[in-house]
Every structure is written in structure tokens, then in C-alpha cells.
Amino acid sequence: LGFTNWSMNPWNSANGGPASDPSQLWQSGSAVNVAWLAWLRTLVDRWRARANVAAWEVFSELDIATGATAAGAAAFAADAAAVVRTEDTTGRPVMASLTALNDWPTLNGSDSVDILQVHTYADPLDTALLSSVGTLRAEYQKPVLIGESGLDAAAPVGATPTTGPDAPLEIKHAIWAGVVSGAMN
To answer: Does the structure show a pLDDT above 90 at 115?
Structure first.
């Protein structure tokens, strides 16, 4: 969780980067925040002409990034969405995802996020997907994308639900739940 590889990150000041702490990314106008937004601008500029780009995700799982708060994430997403919308005038949607651990209304309810994502790992997965998609759609009245899902977030070694004898059937049920959930996936 968080920036577990911060010691190797090129934005770490110990490696010549602009940040002494990864939480500085969420501080609007900080050197690392400005660098991130410039990097995002470069990516959008490079890929915006591609017809197969369906949407832009400005950050994945903000709620487990070191130092991120609901308010900071919402402000960051607003700045990032502004960069995307300036660089790509096609009107493609913008996303900034959270884990299934949290719901940050200041982020999910903001104009900066056009599509919500669920990253659901649970056993039973089918009912968890239906519940999370239904809850988000009802709460925010926005499209929902099943961005990640599985029986367990752990690697499939040892005694995880992904290695059990019922795993194939459970995954099949989860796929059908995703199909009928009203979400994209």
C-alpha cells in the first residue's frame, strides 16, 4: 500500500527528484505536483489522437497512496482533469479510482470524475460486485466501470480463494454478475 518503492522513485529527492516525501504530490503547486501534471500533459498530448483511447484515468487507487486524503485527492483530480480536458478536446471521460476500501464523496461526486470505478476483491465476488456497482450508481448517478475484481487480491498461491475447487464456478458467477450489474467492465 502506498509508495512502497519510494526509496527507488525518481521523484524522491534522494534520487535527484523534487519531493522529500511522497505526500507532496497532493499539495497543489508543489514541485512534484507540477511535475506530475506536466507528465500527464505529455501523455495526453502523445495519445490523444488515438481513436482507441476510451477514457483517461489520472490516478489509480488514490485512497491507498501515501499521504492522500479525500480533500487532497479531490483537488488533485480536479487539477489533473483540467489538464486532460485542455489537452484532449474530444470530451473523453476522466476517471480517478479508489480501492473498494473507501468511498470519498468529495472525489466521486466531483465534476472531475466522469466515470466511477470499482476495484472489488471478495468471496463471494458476484454479490460484492452487484452491491458495489448498485451502491455507486445510486449514490452518484454516474456510469461505473469494473476496473478490477477477483476472489482475493493476494497472489494465487497457498490457500487463497483463487486456488480453491470452487474458484472456476465463482469466477463464472462473478462474470455474469458483472454483465447484469449495469456497469462497464
So the answer is: yes
